[in-house]
């Protein structure tokens, strides 16, 4: 349930309707409150001199504010659409989600629509004396409407400043890199179902982690329920806690055959649920299979696109996409690509320090309940991050040197031999691609010097990781 709520909140956060709707409801409640306050003041015959106004002045003020703010809402909406169009063509349509999430357009539009709605609701209560009907001028309501109008003017200046800075490449790269860093913090070491694990003795934990999938499944039994997908699309998130609860309920193990970011076709295998005992009657067996299928399909969230909440590879891909577009012949902006490489290097330097989460998830009693057969680790993210940039950027000397610099920075944080070997493979692949594209001796010398520096650091780091094993 938590994963679904987080995914729902992420879709709300990157939409343009959620905040204006909330602010419109707040405007309605504010109008009702100020009307009640004005009614109390009118019945008590008390006058607030600094709020005092006439019915004609109140009507004119509220009408002007309501008309001006709703017109400004249209202007802000038009500017926002132009901004999104530029971001889509310059950085890629998939980056529109990040621009929308970081934009204040929904807040500004909500302010303008809410102010206009408030003024119209107050305006209908302005009455002049007619026959036996007494005059009523909402003093407080008019003053609040005027204050909201002044705030709206200030927000217009703020919005123009925000648009001028938000469309710049460094700002967009910063926002995308924040998504990547947040994904790393969420998923390493915390993964799906991690909160359900109980702290146990370190030696016992080491013994448990040495168990293989076959050993765990052999202790459960041969009866299993295969769960096909009922929908087609990308996996946006997986509620691991619910899958662990399902394993506890059935006294079995859930073998997860997919991961966030995978594209799933209809009827494709999502998971196998291994149970201790099969139900006695055929009717109960069919009911159990249907319940398991519905539960697994509910907790595996399938949508239209990938999201970075549980998919660290996709978070890195967003930076890669900006870099590749910058390196295209039509744009030819290596400086933007170098900024992306810097951000990727910083994020992967943090990632290589994190411990790889176990693919065996346990319940509160340390019983295996969830087996994750596929998962992205440092090696996959590194290859995905620099592989495509190497392919298109190896012909550019400065970009290639920047990649070596990033790999050097990542190596300084690496402490596992397998991670160091992956970095070495990526550096050697870059060396091969660079030498194929360059014949200028000065460029080759510069690259070789940077490569030798990285290679020496790799050798030093590898010796340091082997020393504890030899001792």
From TrEMBL:
It holds the Pfam family DUF2254. Keywords: Membrane, Transmembrane, Transmembrane helix. The chain crosses the membrane at residues 12-32, 65-87, 99-123, 143-160. It comes from the Bacteria. InterPro entries: DUF2254_membrane. The keyword Translocase does not apply. The keyword Transmembrane applies. This is DUF2254 domain-containing protein.
């Amino acid at each position: 349930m938590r994963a679904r709520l987080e995914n729902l909140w992420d879709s709300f956060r990157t939409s343009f309707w959620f905040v204006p709707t909330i602010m419109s409801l707040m405007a309605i409640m504010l109008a009702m409150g100020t009307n009640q306050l004005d009614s109390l003041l009118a019945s008590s015959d008390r006058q607030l001199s600094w709020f005092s106004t006439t019915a004609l002045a109140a009507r004119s003020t509220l009408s002007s504010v309501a008309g001006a703010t709703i017109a400004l809402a249209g202007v802000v909406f038009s500017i926002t659409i132009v901004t999104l169009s530029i971001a889509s063509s310059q950085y890629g349509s998939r980056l529109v989600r990040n621009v929308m999430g970081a934009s204040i357009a929904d807040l500004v539009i909500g302010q303008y629509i809410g102010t206009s709605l408030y003024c119209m609701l107050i305006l209908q209560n302005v009455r002049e004396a007619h026959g036996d009907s007494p005059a009523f001028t909402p003093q407080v309501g008019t003053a609040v409407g005027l204050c909201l109008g002044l705030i709206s003017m200030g927000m217009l200046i703020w919005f123009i400043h925000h648009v001028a800075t938000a469309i710049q490449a460094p700002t967009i790269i910063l926002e995308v890199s924040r998504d990547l860093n947040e994904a790393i913090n969420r998923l390493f070491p915390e993964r799906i179902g991690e909160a359900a694990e109980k702290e146990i003795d370190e030696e016992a934990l080491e013994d448990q982690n040495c168990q293989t999938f076959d050993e765990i499944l052999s202790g459960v039994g041969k009866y299993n329920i295969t769960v096909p997908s009922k929908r087609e699309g990308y996996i946006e998130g997986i509620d691991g806690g619910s899958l662990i609860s399902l394993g506890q309920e059935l006294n079995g193990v859930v073998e997860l055959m997919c991961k966030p970011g995978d594209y799933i076709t209809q009827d494709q295998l999502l998971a196998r649920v291994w149970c201790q005992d099969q139900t006695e009657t055929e009717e109960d067996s069919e009911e159990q299979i249907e319940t398991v299928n519905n539960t697994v399909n509910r907790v595996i969230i399938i949508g239209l696109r990938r999201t970075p909440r549980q998919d660290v590879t996709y978070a890195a891909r967003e930076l890669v996409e900006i870099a590749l577009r910058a390196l295209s012949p039509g744009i030819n902006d290596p400086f933007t690509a170098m900024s992306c490489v810097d951000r990727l290097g910083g994020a992967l330097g943090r990632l290589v320090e994190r411990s790889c989460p176990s693919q065996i998830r346990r319940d509160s009693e340390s019983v295996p309940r969830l087996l994750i057969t596929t998962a992205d680790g440092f090696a996959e993210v590194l290859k995905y991050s620099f592989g495509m940039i190497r392919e298109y950027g190896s012909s550019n000397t400065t970009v290639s040197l920047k990649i070596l610099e990033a790999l050097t920075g990542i190596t300084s944080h690496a402490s596992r031999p397998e991670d160091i070997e992956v970095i070495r493979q990526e550096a050697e692949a870059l060396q091969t691609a660079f030498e194929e594209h360059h014949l200028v001796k000065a460029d080759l010398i510069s690259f070789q010097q940077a490569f030798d520096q990285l290679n020496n650091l790799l050798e030093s780091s590898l010796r340091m990781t082997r020393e504890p094993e030899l001792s």
